[in-house]
Design brief:
Layout lengths: L1 E2 L6 E2 L5 E6 L3 H4 L4 H4 L5 H4 L2 H13 L3 E7 L10 H4 L11 E2 L2 E2 L21 E5 L10 H7 L4 E7 L1 H14 L3 E10 L3 H16 L3 E3 L1 H9 L1
Parallel strand pairs: 3-4, 3-8, 4-7, 8-9, 9-10
Antiparallel strand pairs: 1-2, 5-6
Helix pairs in contact: 4-9, 7-8
The structure holds dicarbonimidic diamide (C5J).
Organism: Variovorax defluvii
Protein name: Cysteine hydrolase
Keywords: Hydrolase
Length: 220
């Protein structure tokens, strides 16, 4: 399949491509989680749920590989360096008790993927202690084992975990496409800047395209 993307068409071979959904967790998208404790308006992120769900369902119908990630730390915080924990608002930090359980801690209600995008049997779920999906995780091995060469990205936030993961993927040799209306930031200006950075200089990090273009290509 050729996807009309920016800055030029993206070649997508379905059997060699995984859909990667970054951190669509209650902690970022619902009130009371990590995102809101940092002072952000989480409703901005909620707006991408319908488009993201549409792509996920279409991808599942075609039998494609789906990877979900969660930004997630061990309950003893052994994988959360002070350099990460001590930033942000002192009011409620990673590991503190919030309205949806301990902030960004594995197994807590707030750390789960939102119901609308919940993983189903056979899909891969990667818990990541960093912003990037490859740092200290088994993701590269999971993709190599399945001979995956390209990744289609959705999720939040565009300029933090999505962009970091795309850069890590790019350095490992994957071609990466980001779906523009299936990613969001708490800061609209950061989202548009991240999209520009990714596709600049001849797709230096990757490609971007609206989800409707991908869906049309999949249906065609
Ligand atoms: C952040 C993420 N923004 N998933 N995490 O801390 O982008």
């Amino acid at each position: 399949m050729q996807i009309k993307a920016t800055p030029f068409p993206f070649n997508l071979e379905p059997a060699r491509t995984a859909l990667v959904i970054i951190d669509m967790q209650r902690d970022f998208i619902e009130p009371g989680g990590f995102g809101e404790t940092l002072g952000n308006d989480v409703s901005l992120l909620q707006a991408i749920i319908p488009a993201t769900q549409k792509v996920l369902h279409a991808w599942r119908r075609q039998g494609g590989l789906v990877i979900h990630t969660r930004e997630s730390h061990r309950p003893d915080l052994a994988d959360c360096p002070p350099a990460k924990r001590n930033r942000g608002t002192p009011a409620l930090r990673i590991g503190d008790q919030g309205p949806m359980g301990r902030i960004l801690i594995a197994g807590e209600p707030g750390n789960q993927i939102i119901e609308a995008l919940a993983p189903i049997e056979g899909e891969v779920v990667i818990d990541k202690p960093g912003k990037g999906a490859f740092y200290a995780t088994a993701l590269h091995g999971e993709l190599q084992r399945r001979a995956i060469r390209s990744l289609v990205f959705m999720g939040v936030t565009t300029e933090v975990c999505v962009q970091t993961s795309m850069r890590e993927a790019n350095d490992r040799g994957y071609d990466c496409l980001l779906l523009e209306d299936c990613t969001e930031s708490y800061f609209p200006g950061f989202k548009s800047a991240a999209l520009e950075m990714i596709r600049a200089q001849g797709a230096i990090v990757g490609w971007t395209a609206p989800s409707a273009i991908l869906l049309a290509a999949m249906e065609g």
